[in-house]
Design goal:
Layout: H1 21-33, H2 38-52, H3 64-74, H4 84-96, H5 99-109
Length: about 110
């Protein structure tokens, strides 16, 4: 009889990484607030890499226009008030777009 594929595999491998002790302390504090430890977060990250077949977030260097917008936002400049309903509506519209259209839009911004 074939077993279900959802059987948990034994954890039998280690990942060692040197990181700044201050970064580790800050990360540990943040993760503790959401009920995780560093090892949990690393396992979660690795599972997401497997599921997505890549990093679970975008890695890029912002261009001058993006940097200017981020600096402006940090200063509270040029911000438009928005309601939760407006955000929800925009999010729903974004989710309905085909994946190819989203990828094309992202690549044209680079």
């Amino acid at each position: 009889m074939k077993r279900a594929s959802s059987i948990t595999h034994m954890k039998d491998s280690f990942v060692h990484s040197r990181i700044d002790k201050n970064d580790k302390a800050r990360v540990s504090f943040i993760l503790d607030e959401i009920g995780l430890n560093v090892s949990d977060a690393i396992r979660l990250f690795l599972k997401q890499v497997i599921i997505r077949k890549g990093l679970p977030f975008s890695v890029c260097i912002p261009n001058a226009q993006t940097i200017a917008a981020m600096e402006s936002a940090e200063k509270g400049e040029d911000l438009e008030p928005v309601t939760l309903e407006q955000l929800h509506s925009q999010f729903q519209a974004y989710r309905k777009k085909p994946v190819k259209a989203l990828k094309k839009k992202r690549s044209s911004k680079k």
